[in-house]
Amino acid sequence: MDIISRAEWGARAPESRSTVPWSKRTVFMGHYSAASATQTPRQIQDYHMRVRGWSDIGYNFLINSVTGDLYEGRGWTVLGAHCADHNTESIGVCVIGKDQAGRQDVSDAARRAFKWLYDEANDRKGKRLTLLGHRDRGSTECPGDEIYAWLKAGLPIVGQPPATQPKPPAGAKPAPGTPIAFPLPSGWYFGPVTGPDYSVSGKYGRTFRGRTDRAWLQEWASQLARRGWSVGKGRSWLGKAGNDGIYGPEYRALALAFQKDQHLDQDGLIGVNSWNAAYRNPVT
Fold first, then answer.
1. Residue 29 pLDDT more than 60?
2. The Peptidoglycan recognition protein family domain covers which part of the protein (predicted)?
3. DSSP per-residue codes, 51-76
4. CA distance linking residue 81 with residue 17, whole number of Å
5. What is the CATH number of the domain that holds 201?
6. Residues 181, 120: contact at Cβ < 8 Å?
C-alpha cells in the first residue's frame, strides 16, 4: 500500500525532531481528528504548530476516514506528540474524520489502510505491538466509540474484496511457509560491502525490523532451501562458507541463479523482487 509522503502533501519542515529506536516501540495507538474528513494533513499540521506550539504535526501517520488515503506524519521512528507521556512507546495514527452516532463513519478502505499499517509496524518491530486507543492512556473520548470498539475487536475488516491470485503454472506448488515482507528500506538491497550505504552486506551488524542484516540474509537463503535448492556448507550453493549471512561471491552466485530461474533481472543483488519471489512465487 502506498503512503503519501510529507513532500507530496506539502508538509512544512519540522522545527525539531527526536528519534525513537524500535526497541522502545511497544504500542500502536489509534486516534481521530473529531473534525470533517475534508481536513488535510497540512491543515492539521498548521494547527498543531501554530496553535498548540508543537514542532510538527503530532501524529506518526494519518488516514482519511472516507478515501482510505494514508499519509506520512512524523514517520515510524520520530517521537510524536499525540499522547502525553506515552509518545516514546507508541506510534500514533489519526483517522481524519468524526464519530457520529448511528452511522459508520470509517470506510472499509480506511480500515484496510489502518490494518495494513498495523501489520507493517509489527513486521518492522519483529513482534506484535499492543493495539490501543488514545482513551486507554489519557482522559479523552478519542478515538471515538466506533473506532475504539473496532480496535478492541482486533481490527476485523468487513466487506474486504477477496484477493485474486494468478493461476500458477501446471505442476507448480505454492511457495513454502508464510511470506515475510522485505526487511530493508525502499531501494536498498543485500549486496557487497564495497557498495553504497544502501548495499547491506551483513558485515557491520546493522539492524532492520528487529533483526540483524546477517539474520535476514540467512533467512532468504533458508527460504530457497525450503523451496528445494541445495543450500549450505558442502552443498551446491554456499558450499564453502555456508549460510553465514555475509554477502560475498557465493551469495552473488546463488542470487544470480535464482534470478535466472525466476526470470528476474540478473544483477546478483538481493532486492525486493528477489526477496518476494522467494516467498511468493510458486515452486515449479
1. yes
2. 1-138
3. TS--SS-S-SEEEETTT--EEESS-T
4. 11
5. 1.10.101
6. yes
Q: Are 200 and 92 part of one and the same domain?
A: no
* Rounded Cα distance, 95 and 100, in Å: 14
Residue 80 has pLDDT above 90, yes or no: yes
In 3D space, the residue among 40, 102, 47, 92 whose CA is nearest the CA of residue 66 turns out to be 40
Question: Closest Cα partner for 77 from 4, 14, 21, 7?
Answer: 21
CA quadruple 62, 79, 182, 120: dihedral sign: negative
Tell whether 167 is covered by a domain.
Answer: no
pLDDT of residue 103: 52
**Model confidence pTM above 0.85:** no
3 state DSSP class of 85: coil
pLDDT at 36: 86
Written as nine digits, the cell of 34 is 473529531
Residue 66: CATH number of its domain: 3.40.80.10
Whether the pLDDT of residue 47 is over 90: the answer is yes
Over residues 182-205, mean pLDDT: 88
pLDDT number for residue 167: 55
Q: What is the 3-state secondary structure (H, E, C) of 17-47?
A: CCECCHHHCCEEEEEECCCCCCCCHHHHHHH
